[in-house]
Amino acid sequence: VELMDKDLTTLCNATTTILEPIKIDSISTYKQMVGIEAMTKFVIAFTDPTETTDYYQLKIRYHEKLPDGTDIIRTPECDFYDYLFYIARSTYNVTNSLMPSGVFTDELINGRKVNISVRISQNELAPQYENSELILEFLLFRHTSEYYNFLLTSYMISEYLILPVFGIATIYTNVENGVGLVSGMSYSSYKINVDRNKLGYKPILKNYE
């Protein structure tokens, strides 16, 4: 990005990097009881590249496609309980409420094949409409360090407005001389068909990309 005057003379410029997306190789599913709650455990497999320090965010969307073509999308409540999510929170010494959901780094997994787990309550997977097609979509975002820092600090600021007891944070920025780009981003998507007739039993899902 270039900022130019009326004579098309460059005053300043900014650049960013869009990283190659990291492919989700597979997703396995298991029925699991947590206390008295029936949940589905999802194990997401991918390979972290060796040559870079990587910053990730896992997001999950639930599609309910109606016969008339309407696609109702919602974000199910997820339990991001895997140790990689806890490592990310402990690195920044923040509580769950001050950390965006699903963020982690390759600090302990650099260059390795990774299996990262999340859980979703069976109640969250219950369909809301008759004769709808149910699809879970897993999005693995790969962020630059600039965007990762912006994401964390901006989220902390928004939560600080609600919980001022945690103190003041400064939002990361790379703007210099009036212009800057926070970052580009990339992601891979992996979709799973949910069999509404087998919810709560293994296997409940069929995979497709």
Explain what you see.
With 209 residues, the chain is mainly beta. It is 12% helix and 40% strand. The protein contains two helices and twelve strands; from the N terminus they run βββββββαβββαββ. The strands form three sheets. Strands 5, 6, 8, 10, 11 and 12 form a six-stranded antiparallel β-sheet that branches. The radius of gyration is 20 Å and the shape is globular. 20% of the residues are buried. The C terminus is likely disordered.
What's the helix and strand layout?
Elements (H helix, E strand, L loop, with lengths): L1 E3 L5 E4 L10 E11 L2 E11 L7 E11 L5 E4 L3 E2 L3 H9 L11 E3 L7 E9 L11 E11 L1 H16 L24 E10 L10 E4 L1
Summed up:
This protein is mainly β and about 210 residues long. Helix content is about 10%, strand content about 40%. Strand 5 and strand 6 (about 70-75) form a beta hairpin.
- Secondary-structure element string: EEEEEEEHEEEHEE
Instruction: Categorize the overall geometry.
Output: globular
- The Cα radius of gyration reads 20 Å
Structural class category? mainly beta
End-to-end distance, in Å? 34 Å
The overall pLDDT, averaged over residues, is 78
The total beta strand count reads: 12
Helix content: 10-25%
Oligomeric grouping of the chains:
single chain
Q: What characteristics describe this protein?
A:
2 helices; 12% helix; mainly beta; 12 strands; disordered C terminus; 6-stranded antiparallel sheet; 4-stranded antiparallel sheet; 209 residues
